[in-house]
Specification:
The complex is a heterotrimer. Chain B is an all-alpha fold. Chain B has a single domain, classed as MetI-like (MetI-like fold). In chain C, β7 and β8 form a beta hairpin. Classes of the chains: A mainly alpha, B mainly alpha, C alpha+beta. Chains in contact: A-B, A-C, B-C.
Chain lengths: ~280, ~300, ~525
């Protein structure tokens, strides 16, 4: 049946799904911090004689084409993957949120100009944007993450604006304006907290988007340096052997999916904890 | 919403187009690599011959002159010839437009249906296993790259089951796999957003009032709640449809379909400025058009948002 | 007598059931959506795969002997100074639109190719020091060069210099590539860019070169489709969506060979091998000992077996083994010898003083900048090389860039290492890489003697002389340790067992579709 009433708010730690998500994310962060010491030797130790071994005696999760142990690469890769995701997301939200908020709450000319700017960015090939960014910032994981994050700014700004406009049309915001509150105060005290749930939800979905597009750049022949154990890159590399050695992309793929799922569950939990 | 509104939208459309085209021009100029060299180096041309070609392409002119020529040609509708293919850009872009729109519409349809369905299901059964399951399904779509899910789909549905062709175009059967794969990827973000909004709206006083009036639950759900949730969903969908019209290059590559995405990527990789300009033009127009439609739809659904309402 | 007849009939019926018979259609998988398919304008090898059967060329090259045989030209004469080629053309040859082929048509074609308006990306440059074409009479035409140019006949045997119908070219203008008209065994029916290209048998064809085994095409129709994603090529073959598929990834070869329905036809390509250029102009690679250490430290057999599953031969020099002029004695150079490599690096002053696994000297670590492109398995090769050299104490930082960017970086010498390969049937291809003025001189070599050999090789026509010259070039390249050769390019074609008679020309890329037949089982 339909759950009409908003069930009582639970703090984050009392929600099983969000807790599971938090646990996984903690594991990933732990792997990022401890991985290098747990698996010395490095993710680039290639041994062609042990190429494409299935999980088992050859390696707990198997080896890839160059004979590198997959578990080692996964552990090391946690750091790169987190960096890619967090940096990209930070760029997207850091730039997109203020723009969307301003456009949605200020309206009028500001809104028009800001949104046209966003449209301009959106209507033009993201790959070109990424390439230009890499040209300006150099190659490596950071520029790729920032480039992908930049491509995510306009969608985020647009959604932020949309949500802001709806919240702004609510009676209590009208009331605040009527009593003379400044627009900044309204934006920060009334609009932002009420827009937060939808914004958090969208931000959580953007994490996956960032990771995926970083990996898509690899597929198109640009992106992180070859051999970087970033999970999305590993997924792309292993794709060529999907029929013969499915473990090479399945494990990174699983790790990636679980991380994105965890981020989403935590986002949901936050949304609930902060309340509607 | 009168002529003034349409006039304003037109003006902003032109502004967007100018912005996108300019961004494309400068971004391409920023990326390293010389188009003339890229075209001729492997063919045994001498440096003099390459320099000759550079001049012929107008690449030796001062930057501002190239920019002005780039814009004025665009304004006159003269899209020029591709430096790489040697064919008129307008025709090249039109050829790729059909399959791109086809895939975009199909994928968006799948994405919206799946996304709204999953999102609503998750919201109305909040905190139950249904919620978690629907969320998980949506997230899988969000976190799986299409080049991977696409290949899996081909291996399973084409090679193993022989239900659908693996590649190419030619009708509904060829469209199923790529639209499903792409749509599944889109559904994720729509689902999450819909879930958030529906959950919010379900508990709102407005809905409470509707139910107090004795309206059946289903009716309230479909007529009132979904309408309210439509806003962000439409925004995201319009966004994604706009993206898709720029071409879903990965899906096009995996399923061996034509599309603007592949055209754009090739043009960028070869620094083929005329083609990039053509694709940006189409992309910008499509994007503006789609978003205009979405805004109109949103305003119709939610009168509070109409222009002019305070 | 009747029994013999009966037996004969039975045998005949049995054989007829299994014999290849004319007719039928195949789907041929190409690997790139070609960037423009006008052979006079565009440069991709992909366009040549379908178009070689739509056009004829003045001469053809026998893939077995390397000799040039008559095509549209019955015979030809070369002046003593090597600058004037006179071609006597076949009579009675017609274009697919019915117009006649003659000397005027040849002149039209060459004028088109060399006109600046056409902006040819390849054909024009294959003509070398071309000056003009003269029509002597209706079936005699003369090509005049400003200097002797040995690769001219090789160029004229390629589809880029094929003969198109002047009437069609004038009629269609800048959309000619969608309506191409030649004289070949197949007629160009339609091309939907990015989707497919369709050829149909030319029933009037009767003037094929001696290298063709049939008088006219055996198949009715050939449809070309494009499969840019390597992972989908074998599945498309296996589902029957294609009957022939080019460039099968090496890891799929074993599976296809094991299947009774498919086979893999490997064609070794002449040209330059896939080699890693070492920038001799940038420290520390300006020290020949370091370069030689890298060569001794490379286990090429491991690369070929891991990444290419032994479908390619190992390369020992800058030319592939099947190229005319290849000198087998280059195989003596640089066997895998890690100890010798280490000794060389020690001698050059690179020692690991701080124990971090990377050698250093005067506080500078031995780290090399490797620029890669995303195709040709370069990223994988780069990673394996980096791993092998890491054992030597040499560090590698690699990045993947697009082709125009690679050209720019390498042109400016901003790299230490960059791999590349080009295919071609004439050893003059070496001039593109090792002449001091060449575009792809990515080793930054400036060797006047080497320049001299390369220039002379392009001028002299005597085969033995050319072989001698190019042998010296190959030895010099390896002695000076300019490149790390990795492998010879092998084109792996997946073919359905119902397709018979697939043969490729001397370049290894372009199939002669006239001889392809379908076997019914």
């Amino acid at each position: 049946m339909i759950e009409w009433a908003a069930p009582p708010r639970r703090p984050l730690l009392r929600q099983p799904a969000a807790l599971a998500g938090l646990t996984w994310l903690a594991l990933v962060i732990l792997a990022a911090l401890l991985g290098p010491s747990l698996a010395p030797g490095g993710p680039m130790e290639a041994d062609p004689t042990r190429s494409l071994l299935p999980p088992g005696p050859g390696g707990l999760l198997g080896t890839d084409l160059l004979g590198r142990d997959l578990l080692v690469r996964l552990l090391w890769g946690a750091r790169w993957t987190l960096e890619m995701g967090v940096l990209g997301l930070a760029t997207a939200v850091g730039l997109g949120l203020p723009v969307g908020l301003a456009a949605g709450s200020l309206g009028g000319r500001t809104d028009a100009i800001l949104m046209r700017l966003m449209d301009g960015l959106l209507a033009f090939p993201g790959l070109l944007l990424a390439m230009a960014m890499v040209a300006v910032l150099g190659t490596g994981l950071t520029p790729v993450a920032v480039a992908v994050g930049l491509a995510a700014v306009p969608p985020y700004a647009r959604v932020a604006r949309s949500v802001t406009r709806e919240v702004r049309a609510q009676p209590y915001v009208e009331a605040a304006r009527a009593i003379g509150a400044t627009r900044l105060r309204i934006a920060l005290r009334h609009i932002l907290p009420n827009a937060a749930p939808s914004l958090i939800a969208f931000a959580a979905t953007q994490l996956g988007w960032v990771l995926l597009n970083g990996a898509a750049l690899n597929f198109l022949g640009l992106g992180v340096p070859p051999g970087t154990p970033e999970w999305g890159a590993m997924l792309a590399e292993g794709r060529a052997y999907l029929r013969d050695a499915p473990w090479v992309s399945t494990f990174p793929g699983l790790a990636l999916t679980l991380t994105v799922l965890a981020a989403n569950l935590v986002g949901d939990g936050l949304q609930e904890a902060l309340g509607v | 919403m009168g002529v003034g509104y349409v006039g304003r939208r037109l003006l902003s459309a032109v502004f967007v187009l100018w912005l996108a085209a300019s961004l494309a021009f400068f971004a391409l100029k920023l990326t390293p690599g010389d188009p003339a060299e890229a075209l001729l180096a492997a063919s045994g041309a001498t440096p003099e011959e390459v320099a000759e070609r550079r001049a012929q392409l107008g690449l030796d002119d001062p930057l501002w002159l190239q920019y002005v020529r780039y814009l004025t040609d665009l304004a006159r509708g003269d899209l020029g010839q591709s430096w790489l293919h040697g064919r008129p850009v307008g025709r090249m872009v039109l050829e790729q437009l059909g399959p791109t729109v086809e895939l975009a519409v199909a994928a968006t349809g799948v994405g919206m249906a799946l996304g709204i369905g999953l999102g609503t299901l998750a919201a109305v059964r909040r905190r139950t296993w249904v919620d978690t399951a629907a969320t998980a399904v949506a997230v899988v779509g969000l976190s799986t790259p299409t080049y991977w899910s696409g290949l899996l789909a081909i291996l399973f549905f084409s090679l193993h089951l022989r239900w659908f062709p693996a590649t190419g175009e030619g009708g509904l059967r060829h469209l199923v796999l790529p639209a499903a794969v792409l749509g599944f990827a889109l559904a994720g973000s729509i689902a999450r957003l819909v879930r958030a909004r529906v959950a919010e709206v379900l508990g709102s006083p407005f809905v409470l009032a509707a139910r107090a009036r004795g309206l059946p639950g289903r009716h309230v759900l479909f007529v009132h709640v979904l309408k309210a949730a439509a806003g962000p969903a439409l925004a995201v969908t319009a966004l994604q449809f706009g993206f898709l019209l720029g071409g879903a290059v990965v899906t096009e590559t995996v399923f061996a379909r034509r599309g603007l995405g592949r055209l754009a990527v090739e043009a960028i990789l070869w620094r083929d400025l005329p083609v990039v300009r053509g694709v940006v033009l189409v992309g910008a127009l499509a994007y503006v058009g789609v978003n205009l439609l979405a805004d109109l739809l949103h305003a119709w659904l939610d009168p509070r948002l109409r222009e002019g309402a305070s | 007598m009747r029994r013999v007849l009966l037996l004969g009939i039975i045998v005949f019926l049995l054989l007829a059931g299994c014999a290849p018979r004319p007719g039928g259609r195949i789907v041929y998988g190409l690997t790139l959506a070609p960037s423009g398919i006008d052979p006079h304008v565009n440069a991709s090898s992909e366009l040549g795969i379908p178009l070689t059967s739509v056009y004829d060329t003045l001469v053809y090259q026998d893939p077995e002997t390397g000799e040039f045989v008559p095509g549209l030209a019955e015979r030809w004469e070369v002046s003593d100074d090597g600058t004037v080629y006179t071609f006597y053309l076949k009579k009675g040859v017609k274009f697919h639109d019915g117009t006649p082929f003659n000397a005027e048509a040849v002149r039209f074609n060459l004028d088109r190719i060399t006109s600046p308006d056409l902006a040819s990306q390849k054909a024009r440059f294959m003509l070398g020091p071309y000056e003009r074409t003269e029509v002597v009479d209706e079936y005699t035409v003369r090509i005049v060069l400003s200097e002797p140019f040995a690769p001219l006949l090789d160029s004229l045997s390629q589809v880029y210099l094929a003969m198109a119908s002047p009437t069609a070219v004038e009629k269609w203008g800048d959309e000619y590539q969608l309506h191409q008209v030649g004289t070949g065994p197949f007629v160009f029916v339609e091309y939907v860019p990015g989707d497919h290209l369709l050829l149909r048998r030319n029933p009037d064809y009767s003037w094929g070169p001696p290298v063709y085994q049939h008088k006219t095409a055996q198949l009715d129709e050939v449809e070309f489709r494009f499969f840019t994603d390597p992972a989908t090529r074998s599945p498309a073959l296996e589902t029957g969506e294609a009957d022939v598929m080019g460039e099968i990834p090496p890891q799929d070869v074993a599976r296809l060979e094991a299947s009774p329905d498919f086979r893999v036809e490997a064609v070794a390509l002449p040209g330059a091998s896939l080699m890693m250029f070492m920038n001799t102009g940038r420290a520390p690679l300006d020290d020949i000992r370091v370069r030689q250490a890298l060569l001794y430290g490379t286990d090429r057999a491991a690369i070929v077996s891991t990444i290419f599953k032994d479908t390619s031969p190992v390369a020992y020099g800058p030319l592939t083994a099947v190229t005319f002029g290849y000198d087998p004695t280059v195989q003596q150079y640089y066997p895998h010898d890690p100890e010798r490599a280490a000794a060389l690096l020690d001698e050059a002053g690179w020692v690991d003083t701080d124990g971090d696994g990377i050698r250093d000297r005067d506080g500078e670590p031995l780290v090399l900048d490797m620029v890669l492109m995303s195709w040709g398995y370069m990223p994988e090769i780069g990673q394996l090389l980096a791993a092998q050299w890491a054992d030597l104490g040499v560090g590698v930082e690699s990045r993947v860039v697009s082709y125009p960017e690679a050209l720019e970086i390498a042109g400016n010498g901003g790299h230490h290492l960059i791999p590349f390969t080009l295919s071609g049937s004439d050893p003059d291809i070496l001039r593109k890489f090792f002449h001091s003025q060449a575009f792809f001189n990515w080793s930054k070599v400036e060797d006047a003697e080497l320049d001299g050999w390369l220039e002379e090789g392009a001028r002299v026509s005597d085969k033995d002389q050319r072989v001698e010259l190019y042998s010296q070039v190959q030895h010099r390249v390896m002695e000076e340790a300019l490149v790390v050769p990795i492998r010879d390019y092998v084109n792996l074609n997946g073919v359905s067992e119902r397709v018979q008679g697939l043969r490729f020309d001397g370049r290894g890329w372009f199939p002669w579709l006239i001889d392809v037949t379908l076997a019914e089982r």
